Amino acid sequence: MTTKEIIEILKESPLFEKITSQEKYEAIAHTMEVAGVEYSSEDIKEIVGEVFTAL
């Protein structure tokens, strides 16, 4: 599973739209840790910027 796939899954939740950018970042980071996906905070910040622009 990739970072983008995880974010796409999280975006499907109606709750995801109601939380702050920081909370979205934390939710993504936590989900990636639980899924065992290696990531860097810069990877998330780059993708999160793209995702938040699209919201």
Structure description:
The protein is mainly α and 55 residues long. 69% of the residues lie in helices and 0% in strands. The chain has three helices and no strands. The chain has helices at residues 3-11, 21-35, 41-54. The chain is globular. The model has no long low-confidence stretch (mean pLDDT 81).
Mean pLDDT: 81
- The SS-based structural class is mainly alpha
Instruction: Report how far the terminal alpha carbons are from each other.
Output: 22 Å
The beta-strand count equals: 0
Summed up, the helix count is 3
Characteristics:
mainly alpha, 55 residues, globular
Please write out the topology.
Elements (H helix, E strand, L loop, with lengths): L2 H9 L9 H15 L5 H14 L1
Brief digest:
The protein is an all-alpha fold and 55 residues long. It contains three helices and no strands.
